[in-house]
Amino acid sequence: xxxxxxxxxxxxxxxxxxxxxxxxxxxxxxxxxxxxxxxxxxxxxxxxxxxxxxxxxxxxxxxxxxxxxxxxxxxxxxxxxxxxxxxxxxxxxxxxxxxxxxxxxxxxxxxxxxxxxxxxxxxxxxxxxxxxxxxxxxxxxxxxxxxxxxxxxxxxxxxxxxxxxxxxxxxxxxxxxxxxxxxxxxxxxxxxxxxxxxxxxxxxxxxxxxxxxx
Length: 214
Ligand code: URA
Hints:
alpha/beta
């Protein structure tokens, strides 16, 4: 049903992911526990996000004999974290893909236009040649995610994916309209966005919960 909102949506329906996400949602979960769980869930997300990476056969010697063994072809990955909560996802993904490059993008919401404005951008020089995974734990209005993807396309990126913990139909619709070519990965699609742009039932402010700032 959520694929009707975004045709390239993958929801990670896996018992480990769903169980960990439930603990993250709980009000009483501590900052430390939330952060470790974000790392673990991100690692599991990275497993799914990279499922179709191209493989080549390379010659190796096992202790017993030579063989042609599978190896990832190219290995050109970049994780782009939307500051600041994206960092909580990027660090888990890096556990699984330690040689991936990491870019950062900072966006704030213009109080007048309510639109995202870029205040920080640092990308690897060869980002356009990489598979770029944009990470932000919460796909809420979708405006930051859409702006980030537009900026990366402007930088020449053409192989993009977006990963979040929670999405809502509102944010998915925005991405489907503005970036229908970009696959989206989420651990759950929640009910709605409230009047303060919080995801319901959600998990609260992901940045505050990751960094203990509230
Ligand atoms: N960002 C958050 O951190 N939480 C929400 O619920 C929505 C956006």
